[in-house]
Amino acid sequence: MALNYSVSLRPNPHDKEAAPKAYATAQTNGELTLKQLGRRIAAQTTVSRADVAAVLTATVDNLLEALTEGKQVDFGELGKFRLQIMSTGTDSLSGFTAAHITGVNIQYIPGADLKTIFGMLEFQPVASRAAQAAALRAEKEGKVVEDLLKNTENPNTNPEEPGV
């Protein structure tokens, strides 16, 4: 299975003067909702979709409760979850207070099976969302791909004067 990606130029947020560099961005192709996940699990087991939804909801509730208690939550091959604190630095240990804490994130560490799967992924380049939207607009206007390429290869080309 291949993971779709597009490439775009992005500036360096730490060096505003640096030239933008090309970076890959994973392109999603939909979403698996809780309802859909419940249906899939119910179809694969002897548990009803309602029971699956109840278990998943309780799992999330217990995950959040354990994290706020300062625990790391280990879901086996799925991976581990723990809280990560963001803060501003101070010059000394005695100068640091809770007021320097700026936020909290959930840190996820994938399990061994997921790490293996990630290592075997293939990557498939696709057009960016912006390029897809431009192509759709052009198609609605009756333009063809060759017209779009002419404008990107030589922006000064006048379509009514070939070869210019």
Written description of the protein model:
The protein is an alpha+beta fold and 164 residues long. The protein has a domain at 127-164. It has helices at 34-44, 49-68, 112-119, 129-140, 145-153; strands at 2-10, 21-26, 73-74, 79-87, 101-110, 122-125. The strands form two sheets. It has a three-stranded mixed beta sheet, with no helix packed on it. A hairpin with a 4-residue loop joins strand 3 (73-74) and strand 4. The protein is flat, with a radius of gyration of 25 Å. The two termini are 44 Å apart. Residues 153-164 have low confidence and may be disordered.
Order of helices and strands: EEHHEEEHEHH
| Structural class category | alpha+beta
- Biggest sheet strand order reads 2-1-6
Biggest pleated sheet = 3 strands, mixed
- The portion of residues forming beta strands comes to 15-25%
The dominant shape is: flat
Enumerate the spans where pLDDT stays under 50 for 5 or more consecutive residues.
Answer: 153-164
Classify the helix fraction into a percent range. 25-40%
